C-alpha cells in the first residue's frame, strides 16, 4: 500500500489534500455551478467503435474510489484544492511512470469565482515540489488546449517550458483536441517551485 499520496500541503490560504468520497456534496456543488466555465476543457469519452461497448460517465463516488485506488497503487496523486478551507477545485498528478523515466502529468481546474487570485499556481507549485522532493519524480508535464489561456498562464507564470503541439491528443468536450505541452524537470527548479512562485508574486507586487 503506497501512502505517499496521503498528505496535506499548505501555502497561506491554499491547501491540497487527498480527494475523499465524502467530498461529494462540495465537489458537485462547485462542478455544477461552473458547468459552463469548465465544459470546454473537460475530458470526454469517444464514441465506442465497432465491437466495443460504450462507457458510462462515472458517478462522483466511482471517480473518487478509482482515484484513491490508483493512488494506493502508486500511479496517481489525486487532490482537491481548498481556499480558506473551502473546496474550490481539483488537481491530479496522473500518468506516473517510474523506472528510467520518473515522469508524470498534472491536470487541474478551479472555481471561476476565485480564478485569477493565484490559487491554482500556488496549488501546482505545491504539487510539483511534492512530486520532485518527496516522490522522487524527475519530469512533470502539463498538457493544455491552445485556446485555454487561463491554464496556459498558470504554467507560464511558474516557468514551465512550452515544448510544442500534440495534434488531436485528448478527447475533450466531444472531440479530439490539439494540446500544447509544457514541461519541467527537477534540475530546472533547484530552489523549489514554491520558492520560485513566491519570488514571482513578490516581484509582481513591487511592479504594481
Task: Kindly state the number of beta strands.
Answer: 8
Determine the structural class based on helices, strands and strand pairing: alpha+beta
Percentage of helical residues?
25-40%
Termini separation comes to: 48 Å
Q: Which radius of gyration do the C-alpha atoms yield? A: 17 Å
Along the chain, the helix and strand elements come as: EEHHHEEEHEHEEH
Which fold name is given in CATH as the topology? Answer: Aminopeptidase
Q: What spatial form do the alpha-carbon principal axes imply?
A: globular
Strand order, main sheet: write it out.
1-2-3-4-5-6-8-7
CATH architecture: 3-Layer(aba) Sandwich
User: Major sheet, described briefly?
Assistant: 8 strands, mixed
Number of domains: 1
- Helical segment count: 6
State mean pLDDT (0 to 100 scale): 92
What is the CATH top level name?
Alpha Beta
CATH superfamily: Gcn5-related N-acetyltransferase (GNAT)
Q: What would you say this structure looks like, in words?
A:
The structure is a single chain. This protein has 208 residues and is α+β, with helices and mostly antiparallel strands. The protein has a single domain, classed as Gcn5-related N-acetyltransferase (GNAT) (Aminopeptidase, 3-Layer(aba) Sandwich). Helices cover 33% and strands 31% of the residues. The chain has six helices and eight strands; from the N terminus they run E-E-H-H-H-E-E-E-H-E-H-E-E-H. The longest helix is centred in the middle third of the chain and has 17 residues. The model has no long low-confidence stretch (mean pLDDT 92).
Brief characterization of the structure:
By secondary structure, this protein is α+β, with helices and mostly antiparallel strands. Helix content is about 35%, strand content about 30%. It starts with 8 loop residues before the first strand and ends with a helix.
